[in-house]
Amino acid sequence: MSLLPYIEQIERKEHLVFEEMQQAAQLIFNEQTPKEQIAFFLTAMSAKGETAHEVAGLASVMKSHAVAVDVPEGIYIDNCGTGGDGLQSFNISTTSAFVLAGGSISVAKHGNRKVSSASGSSDVLEALGITLLPNIEQTSELLKQHGIAFLHAPNMHPKLKRIGEVRQAIGKPTIFNLVGPLTNPVPLKTQFVGINRPTFTMDYAEVLHMLGRERAIVVSGAQGMDEASLDGENTFVLLDRGDMIPFKLRAEDVGLAAQPLSAIRGGTPAENADIMRDLLKGKQSVYFDTVLLNAGIGFFAYGLAATMKEGIDMAKDSILSGRAYEKLENIVAYSQKQMQEEPVK
């Protein structure tokens, strides 16, 4: 089998149905498929524009190739975004993950190194002193002990290495950016996803529904930011047991001051780690308010907060009580302990 018939179909601007996309995805993950074909397929798909069925079809195959993670019973949330917005913001969703965990939510945060930003989730975690644990038992142990774990995508998806090389060569977002947040190997009933396409929020909510999420929120912020922004209008869709409810919201609607996107730019992993530590220690800033907004939405997506405003209050309490920073310290301490024990084994 070859990807060429699918490439020709896509170049005719014909969408693939779910099953066709699954067949094409199996070929993408096949080591025998030439990299050039994969690159042509991905660029043609981007030029055509992805559909909900295509995204869901690829996600289902990618997840089937992921490692199995045996996790404690519970309802887990992931707040990983698609990336690819090119806005160079600091690590908002990674910081928000600690805030959510500080509010007694179980967080299984999927992430990767930088692709289109100065510091990806995995980059800033390493700068904080957190190892990207390849050991599945350790990931499960972290979830059991501390209610939060970070799942470095290459460890969870070993078959992605070859595809990653193709994506790096392409050098711009592809369907894999959209699929990344959908392939967490931990079973998710709820999710909060930021995407860089305001016109695709309803389609993305449909994908989440197709993949079995009971409740989820999709957001696209100002200038296609893959987080909720303090600047301008945010485009949302709430998925609630099959119902998909679109709405718009500004920071001022939930009691936060509007701020330009330029105010939340990040830097190197080390610089972003400093921003994160200060924020989780309670330092008030535009970074702080941005995390309040996004973590607040996470509490609402999970169903713990009845409104986003209530979620923001929960986020503030998680930080100012010291619980969010304590989660960071716990994960760093666990990582350091594992690093010290590793040579002995």
From TrEMBL:
Keywords: Amino-acid biosynthesis, Aromatic amino acid biosynthesis, Glycosyltransferase, Magnesium, Membrane, Metal-binding, Transferase, Transmembrane, Transmembrane helix, Tryptophan biosynthesis. 5-phospho-alpha-D-ribose 1-diphosphate binds at residues 81, 84-85, 89, 91-94, 109-117, 121. Anthranilate 2 binds at R167. GO terms for molecular function: anthranilate phosphoribosyltransferase activity; magnesium ion binding. Mg(2+) 1 binds at S93, E227. It is an enzyme of class 2 (transferase). The keyword ATP-binding does not apply. Mg(2+) 2 binds at D226, E227. GO terms for cellular component: cytosol. Residues 76-325 form the Glycosyl transferase family domain. It catalyses: N-(5-phospho-beta-D-ribosyl)anthranilate + diphosphate = 5-phospho-alpha-D-ribose 1-diphosphate + anthranilate. The keyword Glycosyltransferase applies. Signal peptide: none annotated. Anthranilate 1 binds at G81, N112. Binds 2 magnesium ions per monomer. Homodimer. In the C-terminal section; belongs to the anthranilate phosphoribosyltransferase family. This is Anthranilate phosphoribosyltransferase. It comes from Solibacillus isronensis B3W22. The lineage of its organism: Bacteria, Bacillati, Bacillota, Bacilli, Bacillales.
